[in-house]
From TrEMBL:
<dbReference type="InterPro" id="IPR004408">
    <property type="entry name" value="Biotin_CoA_COase_ligase"/>
</dbReference>
<dbReference type="InterPro" id="IPR045864">
    <property type="entry name" value="aa-tRNA-synth_II/BPL/LPL"/>
</dbReference>
<dbReference type="GO" id="GO:0004077">
    <property type="term" value="F:biotin--[biotin carboxyl-carrier protein] ligase activity"/>
</dbReference>
<keyword id="KW-0436">Ligase</keyword>
<dbReference type="GO" id="GO:0005737">
    <property type="term" value="C:cytoplasm"/>
</dbReference>
<protein>
    <submittedName>
        <fullName>Biotin--[acetyl-CoA-carboxylase] ligase</fullName>
    </submittedName>
</protein>
<feature type="domain" description="BPL/LPL catalytic">
    <location>
        <begin position="1"/>
        <end position="177"/>
    </location>
</feature>
<dbReference type="InterPro" id="IPR004143">
    <property type="entry name" value="BPL_LPL_catalytic"/>
</dbReference>
<dbReference type="Pfam" id="PF03099">
    <property type="entry name" value="BPL_LplA_LipB"/>
</dbReference>
Length: 243
């Protein structure tokens, strides 16, 4: 393991990705920063965080042993590792909002941005970026966001939380490497936000529709039971879950 600590950077994911192109990095190289000037979220969104209040880090994992059609399992094990770590800090009512937002009491506390490096159609590295709201208390522009401090009233040591997450990532990646796919998927689905509950979605054109979340496919598509008893699969570009 190698930890690179920075005071400020555009994005820990971008930095680690660039570094992995320039030099060959050891598995578990971690980049952590106090502040990001161009923090990136899923689907081209931005990730904004106050200076030194929250965790922003990226982990490089060698995933050359994983078949590319199983790449969503990286997302699943990462979500499980974060949930396990937050359970350790007694954070209540944890759920995974598909594909990998981490919620506590239905509010988003953590976001994950996974970027895979593919070489000759095979997976090579995965850059797992984690933004976990920890000690920030003002989310006035983000009504659905919260932090560990707002939830628990406690102030946390950022390094301590990061080390716990890295430990759990190591554990869950071992399960993945051992091929325990069904077990991982079961754990993930058990924690899925609004599973088997009536949910409202927005499609790419902006229209709303409702259905019941049933499960996820191996490629990470959400399987939704629609009216007329039809189960349809959607990928992240096609829909977003509203509530
Ligand atoms: C999301 O919820 O859309 C994902 C947010 C991911 C944010 C983290 S912060 C550390 C890493 N560097 C980035 O630029 N993004 C991820």
């Amino acid at each position: 393991m190698r930890i690179i600590k920075l005071n400020a950077i555009d994005s820990t994911n971008s930095y680690l990705k660039q570094l992995s192109v320039e030099e060959s990095l050891v598995d578990n190289t971690i980049v952590v920063t106090n502040y990001q000037t161009k923090g990136r979220g899923q689907m081209g969104t931005t990730w904004v965080s106050e200076d030194s209040k929250n965790l922003m880090f990226s982990v490089l994992k060698d995933v050359s042993w994983l078949h590319a059609d199983k790449s969503f399992y990286i997302s699943m094990v990462t979500s499980l590792a974060i949930i396990k770590s937050l359970e350790y800090f007694s954070i209540p009512k944890l759920r995974i909002k598909w594909p990998n937002d981490i919620l506590s009491e239905d509010m988003k506390v953590c976001g994950v941005l996974i970027e895979n490096v593919i070489k000759h159609t095979h997976l090579k590295d995965s850059i797992i970026g984690i933004g976990l709201n920890i000690n920030q208390t003002d989310f006035s522009n983000l009504p659905k966001a919260t932090s560990l401090r707002l939830i628990s009233g406690q102030v946390f040591n950022l390094d301590e939380v990061m080390i716990m997450i890295i430990k759990e990532i190591t554990y869950y990646f071992k399960l993945l490497k051992a091929g325990r796919f069904q077990e991982i998927k079961n754990l993930y689905e058990t924690l899925l936000f609004r599973k088997d509950k009536p949910s409202t979605f927005k499609d790419a054109e902006g229209s709303m529709f409702s259905g019941f979340i049933k499960s996820v496919s191996n490629s990470g598509n959400l399987q939704v039971l629609l009216e007329d008893d039809i189960i349809k699969e959607f990928d992240l570009k096609e829909i977003s879950l509203l509530y």
